[in-house]
Amino acid sequence: MTRESSSSDAWGLLLSDYFAGISCIEVIERDDGYVAATDNLPMYFSSYDEWPDYVKEAMAFVRGRVLDVGVGAGRFALYLQEQGHEVVGIDVSAGILEVCRQRGVHNVRQLPFHRVDSSLGVFDTVLMLGNNFGLFANPRRARWMLRRLKKLTRDGARIVAESLNVYATDKPEHLAYHARNRQQGRLPGELRLRVRYRDRIGDWFDYLMVPQTELEEIVEGTGWRTAAFLESGGAQYAAVLEKD
Question: Are 10 and 202 in contact (CB under 8 A)?
Answer without folding.
Answer: yes
